Every structure is written in C-alpha cells, then in structure tokens.
Amino acid sequence: MRKERLIISVTLVLVMLFTCVISFAQSQELKTWGAQVKKQLGGSKITVAAATHPSIEAFRKMTPQFEKLTGIEVTWDTMEEIYLHDKILTEHVARTGRYDVVMMDVCWIGEFAKKQVAIPLDDYLKKAPKWYNYNDFVPAYSKGLGVYDNKVYGIPSAGESAFIAYRKDLFAKYGYDPASIKTYDDLLAAAKFFNRKEDGLYGISMRGRRGHHIVYGWFQALYPLGGSVFGSGTNDVRINSPESIRSLEYFVDLMQYAPRGIENFSHEEATTTFMQGQAAMWFDATALAPWIEDETKSIVAGKVGYMAPPTGPSGSAAAVAGWNLAISSASKNKDVAWAFITYMTSQLTAAEYVDSGGVVTRTSILNDPKFVSQYPYYPQIVESLEMANVLVEKGIDWRPRIPEWPRIGEILGLNASLVLTKQQKAKDALNNAARDIKALFK
Predict the structure, then answer these.
(1) What is the pTM for the complete model shown?
(2) How far apart (Å, rounded) are the C-alpha atoms in residues 172 and 169?
(3) Once rounded to an integer, what is the mean pLDDT over residues 383-398?
C-alpha cells in the first residue's frame, strides 16, 4: 500500500513539474513574441468594436497584459448587440477608420465580405507563429464561423451551439425527470408544468425581441421540425413550407410559458431572467453559460443542469453560431490589429481566456479534463455540436452565410414578431416573408 501511494505521489509531482515546464516555455514564447511586436509596433493604438458578451468581458480582462507585453494601446467601444452591425457599417461607409478590429457575427460574414468591410486573413495566418495553432479551433467553428467563399475573414472568438439549462433544484423538488425531455413535445410539456408552479416562476426563458433575436429563438425549432429557409444548396425559398410554418407556431406555443415581455427579450434579458431564478428552463447559446455559473451575477449558479436540444420529427439539428474577430478594411493599423487578434485567440492564451469567463473555441480546451471538471456543461456543448454537424453534413447553414442574410433576417424577424404578438397568423406572416425574400433575388 505504501509503495502504491509513493508511486502515485511521485507521478503527481512529475505531472506538476511537467506542467510547470510547459507553462514556463509557453510564457517565454509569448514574451519573445511580445518583445518583437513592441519593437515593431509599440506605441500604436487600436480601437475594437464589440457587443456586450462574455467573450468580450474576458478579452477586456486580458487587455492590460497585452498592452504591457506589446506596448500597444487598446480602446474598446462596446455596445448592445442589436446596434453593433449598423454602427460598423456606418463607420465603414464614412471611411472614418475609427475601428481596427470588429466583432463579427457569423450571419454578417457574407455581407461584410461582399462590401469589403472586413479583409481576408489568410496571409496573416500563413505567417502566424506555430504556437498560435489555427488547426486547434473546433472544426465546426473554424469552417462554419469565419470562412466565406473559401477565404478566412474572421477568427472564432466565441463559438457556440445552443442547449437547454434547467434548475436542478426545482426539477428535484417536483419530481420531474430532466431525462424525460427527449422531444420538442416533451420540452413544451415541461414548460407548461413549471409555469406558475411558484409565485414569479415561468416555464422557460428565451429570446423574443423583433429582429435577429426572435429569429435565433424560433430557429431552435425550425430544422428539427422539418423547416428550412431555402432548399438545400439553392435559393429556393422554403420558409413558408408547412413544416416551417409549424415550427413558428410551435415557438409561439412555447412562449406562452415564458415571462411577460418576452417579445422584448434579447439574449441578455432571457439569460438574466433565468439567472434571477424566474424561469425553470432556458434555451439559448452555449456561449452564455459562463454568466449562469458566475456566482457574482447569478443566484442559480451551481443549481443548474444542462442538456442538448431535443429531437424533432426530422431528427436532431442544432445551431452552429457565434462570433469572430475581424480586421476592418478601413483600419490604418492592420498589422497592429492582427497582433491583438493573435494574442487574444491563440492556443497559448486559450486557458487564460476561458478562466477569465471566455467562451471555449478550441478543441484542446474543450477536451481538457481540468476544464471539463470546472465547467460541467462542456460535454453537453460537444453533444450539441455533434447535432449541429447533422446540418453541416447536409451542406446547410443554420443561418445562411450569404450577403443577403442580414436583410433576410430583418424580414423574418419582423414577420415572426407579428406572430408572437398575435397580430398575424404564422401562415400569413411567412407567406409575406417568402414573397419579400424572393424579391431580394430578382
């Protein structure tokens, strides 16, 4: 027994020493790189346009160390997500050169590429240091978030799928087995069961605000229920198919068990409501889980379980969504901007990023036993990504990466909102949406 304990102790010491050696070597690599950057670019200034998001909170925590390492000064212009797209385009059209780095949603990439808002990054990646390791990004993110027309326009900074968070304490209190939620009908039944079960408690919290947010919420059901925006690989509009109509009707049915004012909820309101203990379940982006588990913000931290999206009549399908960091074409400091992106998104700084509350984008972190233990929802993220690959393998973008998508998203967001607020029937609204989308391609 003593011999076995001795072997275990020695093994642990060796592992710790090996980890320290690796950590020291990595630190030296960053210092060497930082010294080179400071010599070439020190004294430069850049401005980053970003949305309110856990990833940005983490990057801001990392910024002082980047500035110290490189001598580069960083200014952040952070705003609510709904304003970011238009603000970036306004500055681009005016050619102000105000922004050097822009936070880019995957659904903007086609538009930003076509309008030359962002520049291709392939040449920069070819010159990136080995420790940057672009191949370590989760493939669904590197291929599905920042690539358009076979060129890299953005580096994944907050990859996400979607999953369900649920109150383990409430489910245990009322004897409701979370494993029983296997289908979308099961999800609806669970939301109904918990709605008003206690004073101030609702069944589920999701996004419902007109525009991008309601589309995000509704699309959690679109593909599993057999709907789609287009026919596979075509511009054949299918958003008013019977299956697509049923998916919107389902979403509206589910939202009757959501908090009052759901029609005004973005990801922030939806998540905050759950964090304040006002909903039994929450269905949104995996990237937002750090907020839920932050004890300084969330009264339900440590009381939450997670599950991958349920299965619909058409099988499993989940989102591949998220954010990139990109370089503005109007920037006068593109090399400086790239140095910033290199530091913030490298494999060497990935652990620091996640420890700061950032959103996992790299395979090495997602599979690291330390982080799997620290963040209990990582296995469900992997499961959700596997479900998302169902669409990828079919050649379907969850939200099509085409230049017309922002306008299409506005059309869908308006019409879905009219249905949620009971101003139109789903069939009429989506027939109108189909008509307007078809007009974009004429």
Answers:
(1) 0.79
(2) 5
(3) 81
